[in-house]
């Protein structure tokens, strides 16, 4: 009996891109550890390579809407996270802007922006482009 081979679509990442993504994770973890340990200079310094690499990754994946949306959401998450860290480092996180809203709550702007981008992708774009995306993957 001969078994039929099925081939599932495969998404591959060039090795140089994968190395950059892995380095990005190192920078991100260093930033968050520095935040946790209140190591201000390291935390602030790690914002730049973490955010820059996330933007480069988003730019390099711009031809794939799914990847672009997720990578832009990650860049927005890093931005929100970095702002929140800075607000805590410099003790303006608890300062009231209006009512019960504090400066820390401004981090919600990029967080919610990332959520809206992913909502756009999953609720609007993906349902309307399923065939197009599967054809692109199989090429």
Automatic annotation (TrEMBL):
Protein name: Uncharacterized protein
UniProt KW keywords: Membrane, Transmembrane, Transmembrane helix
Residues annotated as transmembrane: 38-59, 68-86, 106-124
Organism: Chitinophaga dinghuensis
């Amino acid at each position: 009996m001969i078994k039929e081979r099925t081939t599932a679509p495969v998404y591959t990442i060039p090795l140089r891109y994968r190395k950059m993504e892995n380095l990005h994770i190192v920078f991100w973890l260093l930033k968050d550890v520095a935040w946790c340990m209140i190591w201000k200079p390291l935390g602030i310094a790690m914002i730049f390579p973490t955010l820059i690499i996330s933007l480069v990754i988003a730019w390099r994946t711009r031809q794939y809407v799914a990847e672009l949306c997720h990578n832009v959401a990650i860049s927005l998450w890093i931005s929100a996270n970095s702002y929140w860290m800075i607000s805590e480092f410099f003790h303006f996180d608890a300062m009231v802007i209006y009512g019960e809203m504090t400066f820390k709550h401004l981090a919600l702007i990029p967080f919610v922006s990332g959520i809206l981008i992913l909502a756009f992708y999953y609720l609007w774009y993906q349902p309307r482009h399923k065939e197009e995306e599967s054809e692109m993957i199989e090429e």
